[in-house]
Write a structure and sequence with these properties.
The structure holds 2 protein chains of 2 kinds.
Chain A lengths: L2 H11 L4 H14 L3 H23 L7 H24 L3 H25 L6 H18 L3 H13 L3 H12 L3 H24 L5 H26 L4 H20 L3 H22 L6 H28 L5
Helix pairs in contact in A: 1-2, 3-5, 4-5, 5-6, 6-7, 7-10, 9-10, 10-11, 10-12, 11-12, 12-13
Chain B lengths: L1 H29 L1 E9 L6 E2 L2 E6 L24 H4 L8 E4 L5 H9 L8 E7 L6 E7 L2 E2 H7 L4 E4 L2 E4 L2
Antiparallel strand pairs in B: 1-3, 1-5, 2-3, 3-4, 5-6, 6-7, 8-9
Classes of the chains: A mainly alpha, B alpha+beta.
């Protein structure tokens, strides 16, 4: 239901006056974040940028290398200027479009230089170049997805020894892996604190915090699930349930209903996965399928009940 | 003040990239030309995307143009430590080719016969700097010229494919 319809019904019910309705509507008109339009600009920018990368990758024989390079630099300069112009003229949608195009354009230019001069450099050299040169555009952007992609690139460009060590730690359940997750979570909390201070000027800290917590969830949910379900490691169960319980506790403390619901649902899905995987003995396949179907129904019922129950909890009222 | 910082922050990456391109162009133009034989990187001597993946055949390379007459193997296509653990990426070099010619060159490279086809890469070499590949040669000819003179034809003989010279 649109806000206009909603507020009209509130006026009819006597919840607000007509004057209040007008105030609400004018406030929303001023402060609405034009989510749809901004998202359209971001998607368009990403598609155009990727298209340019593919056109460069085709390595056109008809164009001499010098022409390709000059054309690319003119285009890149155009993106940079357009980004600057849209920031100066406060055109938020266009700003994000041209910042994304500048970000992808830098990668395309590095790729073109590599192609023209036949460089055999690996991913890390490329990622470092991209991260460093694109940082001004990412830091002025208000698009947290761009910030997350940039931070992901930065992580991928870390010294190889570190990446190898992290990969070793997360491969198997060990004290190192638990400590690593704890460290990532602490960095997430620090990034959130940092975001409180700088959010008005820059959303990079929020993007980093989001990246870190998504990473933690990814590892906890998928890697730890693998440890528990395939390798039957009892301590891994504790890690997964402990993590979700801690997140739900934090959500209750902060009265964050969305976070609480998300974690409750993930816990239920995890329990469902444990039961589903225990049914691998399919010599009674018919019974297995029936049991699986019943479990799905049980899961839906549990999810609906949980959502209903959480909404009734005093904490979130 | 803020406006000036923004202008500098936006112009700087452009200047860095342009300077890099100019530096590479100068480095390529001023280096000594060295021709090195190349071979496919077994077992995957295939095109991967739009580039040819090769390895320098140091056993057949003439090391006399290098200082001290020793081939500086580590300077060429030096693979980073992380990728070295995967044997198929060790010291792998790349030569980028246009999409339209990829199939023809792919066939030629995969089905090459050592007696009739010789693949070489011309490098611009300066001691202490990363060598830059300039040209891919087949039987002494730049590859587009070779393809022009020898359009690939295939003849099937008892399961084996022979390239006509």
């Amino acid at each position: 239901m649109s806000l206009a319809k909603k507020t009209t019904s509130w006026v009819k019910e006597g919840l607000i006056t007509q004057e209040q309705q007008q105030n609400i509507l004018s406030f929303e008109r001023k402060h609405s974040n034009h989510f749809f339009w901004n998202a359209a600009f971001i998607i368009a920018g990403s598609l155009i940028g990727l298209g340019i990368c593919l056109l460069i990758a085709a390595n056109w024989k008809v164009l001499p290398n010098a022409v390709k390079l000059v054309g690319d630099f003119i285009l890149l300069g155009g993106f940079f200027y357009a980004a600057y112009w849209s920031i100066q003229n406060k055109r938020s949608g266009l700003r994000e479009l041209f910042l994304i195009l500048s970000f992808v354009g830098i990668a395309a230019t590095i790729g073109l230089i590599g192609q023209v001069f036949q460089l055999s450099g690996g991913w890390q050299k490329f990622a470092w170049g991209w991260v460093l040169l694109s940082s001004p555009f990412v830091f002025v952007s208000r698009n947290k997805w761009l910030g997350m992609v940039w931070f992901g690139l930065l992580v991928s460009a870390l010294p190889e020894v570190w990446l190898e060590t992290i990969s070793d730690w997360t491969w198997h359940f060990s004290l190192n892996s638990v400590l690593f997750y704890a460290l990532v979570y602490i960095f997430h909390l620090l990034a959130l604190k940092w975001d409180e201070r700088i959010h008005q000027h820059c959303i990079m800290a929020e993007a980093i915090a989001l990246f870190l917590i998504w990473n933690t969830y990814f590892y906890i949910f998928f890697t730890a699930a693998d440890w528990t379900l395939n390798h039957h490691n009892f301590w891994a169960y504790l890690l997964v349930f402990g993590f979700f319980a801690m997140r739900m506790y934090t959500a209750m403390r902060q009265q964050n209903l969305v976070s609480f619901k998300r974690n409750a649902i993930l816990t239920e899905i995890y329990i469902f996965l444990i039961f589903a995987c225990k049914m691998h003995n399919l010599w009674l396949s018919g019974l297995g399928f029936i049991g699986g179907g019943l479990l799905i129904l049980l899961l839906i019922w549990a999810l609906r009940k949980t959502t209903h129950y959480i909404k009734q909890m005093d904490t979130f009222k | 003040m803020k406006k000036n910082i923004l202008i500098i922050a936006f112009i700087l990456p452009w200047i860095c990239l342009a300077s890099w391109a100019v530096y590479l162009a100068c480095a390529r133009a001023t280096g000594t030309e060295i021709v090195l034989p190349v071979m496919g990187y077994d077992p995957r001597d295939l095109f991967s995307g739009r580039y040819i993946a090769y390895q320098i055949d140091w056993k057949r390379a003439d090391c006399s143009p290098f200082p001290g007459g020793t081939c500086p193997e580590d300077n060429f296509c030096n693979t980073s430590r992380f990728w070295k653990q995967f044997s198929w990426r060790r010291n792998q070099c790349r030569f980028y080719i246009p999409e339209q010619e990829a199939d023809e060159l792919d066939k030629l490279f995969r089905l090459r016969n050592e007696d009739t086809l010789r693949f070489e890469v011309v490098y611009s070499y300066r001691p202490g700097h990363e060598p830059l590949a300039k040209e891919l040669r087949i039987n002494g000819l730049n590859w587009p010229e070779y393809l022009k003179q020898n359009p690939p034809k295939q003849e099937e003989h008892a399961g084996k494919v022979r390239l006509s010279k």
